Amino acid sequence: MLKKIILLLVLMLSFSSIPVSADGSYEEDVLSKAIPWSESSKVTQTGLYKIDVTKESTFEFVFTDPSSSWASMHIEKGAANLVASMQTTWKDNDSSKTIFKIRLKKGTYYASLFNNLKSASYKIVSDVKTDAEPNNRLEDATPVHLNTMIYGRSNGNTSDDDYYKFTLTEPKKITLQLDESFLAMYGDTYGAKLFNENMMILDLDMGYVPISSTYLPVGTYYIGISINLYRGFNKEYQFMVKSSSLPNTPVESITGTTILNNNKTVSGIVSAGGKSDHFQVEHTNENPFVLFTTSTNPLTIGLLKWDERMQFYEETPYTYSPNGTNVWTQELPKGKYQVDVTMDASVRKDIPYSIRYESIRFTDVPTDQPYRSQIERLANEGIINGYHNAQFKPQNSILRKHVFSMLSRIDGFKLAAIRPMKEFKDINDTDSYYEIIKPFYEAGIIDGSGDYMNHESNLTRAQLAKIIVNAFNLQLGGEPIVFNDVKQTDGFYEYIEILASHGITTGSNGNFMPNQPVSRQHFAVFLTRTLDTVN
Fold first, then answer.
1. Among 269, 320, 420, 428, which residue carries the largest CB count within 10 Å?
2. Helices 400-408 and 461-472 meet at what angle, rounded to 10?
3. pTM of the model
4. pLDDT tens-digit readout, 199-248
5. Quick check: is 60 in a domain?
6. β-sheet bridge partners, residue 47
């Protein structure tokens, strides 16, 4: 805008006798003497003219004989508000005239004609352009609808910035898409930017990146279209701001570094028209540092370690390039890390991706362990702790006392007593598991076996079915599965049937294997499916 005002000042002082004030605006007495200029009337003298626009309309200005004269026109709306700058040219392949079109909002405008003017006139024409001037300042930005094609036009052969705005009342995925015909001719340049009042978000430029997306929170956003025209006549453009729903996972933040919590997947877009993405990870133990990523094209992942003494992130030698589904594991010291996600500069399209950080709790539950997600989930929720040597022992049979201990750690899990605790020969109130097992007996979830609780014994699949059904008060759900090795006369038939009706158990090859001990890893599967059912 400052450049335009300076240009206006220089040109008017050089080629016109119209006085201007120090800030480049017309003096009030000059504006009052502007000559009215009506539609279809021909102007042959340089000077200052006034155009009254009674309603938003498209004006077509015609300058004659540009080959033998060089005429210029500035249109302002009030003092120091340059709307458009135009001058005659032969580069439009028409030696008899130069035509400029501009859509003006309602109001009073002042047209300054200078240099070698032969004649100029205008008429109002039919038009469907959304781009109504003035909109080359943020305060004049034109509101636009999402998912609707926006039609605009550059005005004149100097830089013309058009601003549009839209407001989001809920977070959305936003895609800025330039029409395929919006491509630069030789010598022409253009740019399209998506931003808010605080930061640039997407920057599309020179036809290399015609489409780019980002995730946006609630707020007001602006689109800036800028064109430099080498050929010196109007250039039309069109674009669309598309909106769509966010993924089911949390998404990256545009306002700064995104916190990457343990075992929480975050979706992101490395935008061809944007910047790299940054995540912050707090690695709190000596377990391996693991990153899971999925992407449609190769990415570059780099780590920076926070230096507590120097108080800044220092680069680490850990950089890798995942593509598709990738798992990266590294032994890293405890501390704060920044994870940078970037793309190769030669890639001219967005790369959607997801990223998840985990600090593996158990050395015997590697990333390819089939039940790892269920085990890690219960560990993250504080339900399972594993053993002191950072092992979970997934294939070991689970003990009855460990089942009660894990169930008692479920957030919000409560049991109502219906009977007093009885004495058992193998456990008393001095046992560390006594207070854990006691509520399960008092609630009628378990009975023991005669005078023995057998809490140090393994648990069969049938016994687990009874405990889960009673502990969570499960009722028969959908169609149950018929198992070859479970008869209706079996004592555990009803409990197994209820579990199967909720999909908590599916068996194996048509069998439930009711008397087989439950492994620790399979218990994790039973429990996570149960929690999903009751929640």
1. 269
2. 20
3. 0.68
4. 999 988 756 788 999 999 999 999 998 877 665 567 778 899 999 999 99
5. yes
6. 113
